[in-house]
Amino acid sequence: MKLLDGKLVSEELKKQIAVEAAEMLEKTGRKPHLVAILVGNDGGSETYVASKMRNCEKVGFKSSLVRYDVTVTEAELLSKIEELNKDAEVDGFIVQLPLPKHINPDVITEAIDYRKDVDGFHPINLGRMQRNLPCFLPATPYGIMLMLEYYGVETAGKNCVVVGRSNIVGSPMSILMARNSNPGNCTVTLTHSRTANLSEFTKNADILIAAIGKKNFITADMVKDGAVVIDVGMNRETSTTTKSGFKLYGDVDFENVAPKASYITPVPGGVGLMTIVSLLRNTLAAARNEIYAK
Ligand SMILES: Nc1nc(=O)c2c([nH]1)NC[C@@H]1CN(c3ccc(C(=O)N[C@@H](CCC(=O)O)C(=O)O)cc3)C=[N+]21
To answer: Name one GO biological process term (predicted).
Structure first.
């Protein structure tokens, strides 16, 4: 079993990003600028956004945080988005999800200028991804592709089973793994909560991508010997032993699955760290107008 080490890969890729940001600063006198909008003060979102901001500073980007109370209206949020869309000083911005129930995340996602949508959630970016056109890729799937690429994991011709069909992970992941690219060229099966006999599919997976949102959902009996196992789970539980007061669990029963796997990502220290690298890459690409002219 070999660990797909998100810490190692993300540090390596962030070094490259820092070099390119420094080059940009020298040439143009400005840094890539990411803005994050955070609504409410739920501990989880707070931690992730703080980590995004910290990583921006680390690689020499400018980052700004816009905070709203949980009572903010959809209209107020939309007017902020309009302002950021127009602001030439802002290269990319994200609205941290989940949002409170009175705000429709689809309305928010579509209001963001797709040329600044460094999360890659806008339908234009998703549609362009599906057609293999230049676009911002959604950060978590992009991060997984970067991880597979870094370790040279062979994917062509393999059976890839994705568990979970969310808009931001499972569904785009299935598209990326099926396309004619490296990594890619898999035969992909997208499974979900209504899949009958799920383990019959997962047991056939050469590459298993778990994005369900349930702690220890993938058990050893569901995994083929020698499989590549990618754990996208981020299940937070309160804990008295960690500094943050939370402990993070994946969707995979790591202890029992790892001995069977050829490669496996840990949680924490796997996919989450790659998600941040992808966001940085997208922000750099936005700042350089690499994908869209602005
Ligand atoms: N608009 C939007 N864009 C997102 O990209 C987005 C979002 N909303 N909502 C929530 C999810 C979650 N997410 C993570 C980012 C970093 C880690 C991360 O750094 N994880 C570390 C440590 C985490 C810890 O220890 O708490 C690790 O896995 O090792 C995890 C998860 C981005 N998300």
So the answer is: L-histidine biosynthetic process
